[in-house]
Design goal:
Layout (H helix, E strand, L loop, with lengths): L2 E3 H23 L3 H4 L10 H25 L7 E3 L2 H10 L25 H21 L9 E3 L7 E3 H25 L17
Antiparallel strand pairs: 1-2, 3-4
Helix pairs in contact: 1-5, 1-6, 3-5, 3-6, 4-6
Length: 202
């Protein structure tokens, strides 16, 4: 299992979220018509991708907020990932900044029609990232190992707070890679698209 200093984990995640915000701000500058355009049948538009992420945020952000308010255990200097949390994070996190290789099926509740308001979706996305940064900061005063968050599929399975943050950010990174490729597919240059994650050198 992954073992990392709690402070280091939070600092790394906050940097990752900053990069996601930079990517969203970059996307925001582009033609709204193209942001709502699906490049091919069965493919999502940019606004659909962001709404998918918003939907997860609507569940996880309040769940995290409630959990850290209720369980005020003293912080542990070290975070040790749980088996499921580590597995979910690694299976979700991109291994390539240019493509997502391991495709996954999306639950119907998190799959949205291409009839969304770009401004509303983008605004919520950025608001959620600000909330996520706040929760990460507040979690410095909590135990990332003992605070538990139920997953979306079933409340019977709960992940450690540290793993919930790791999974949530990995999920965001995965779909931001997808968003970058969708920009390119609809004819928008991506040479200045922010680097959203660092791929370890082997």
């Amino acid at each position: 299992m992954a073992k990392i200093k709690s402070e280091e984990l939070i600092n790394d995640l906050k940097k990752d979220v900053q990069q996601l915000v930079a990517a969203a701000e970059h996307i925001k500058q582009n033609d709204k018509v193209k942001l709502a355009y699906a490049p091919a049948e069965g493919k999502w538009s940019i606004v659909q991708i962001l709404e998918h992420l918003n939907a997860y945020g609507r569940y996880y952000l309040p769940a995290i907020d409630n959990a850290i308010a209720l369980k005020k255990d003293e912080p542990d200097a070290w975070f040790i990932s749980g088996f499921l949390g580590d597995y979910f994070t690694k299976s979700m996190k991109p291994t390539n900044v240019f493509e997502v290789k391991n495709k996954m099926k999306t639950a119907k509740a998190y799959n949205f029609p291409n009839s969304l308001n770009v401004d509303i979706v983008m605004s919520e996305y950025l608001e959620q990232k600000a909330k996520l940064q706040l929760l990460l900061e507040e979690s410095r005063l909590r135990n990332l190992n003992t605070v538990r968050i139920p997953i979306t599929i079933t409340k019977l399975v709960k992940l450690k707070l540290g793993d919930t943050f790791r999974f949530l950010v990995a999920h965001e990174q995965r779909h931001m890679v997808q968003a970058r490729n969708t920009l390119k597919a609809v004819g928008i240059a991506t040479d200045k698209f922010p680097v959203i994650l660092e791929i370890p050198q082997r």
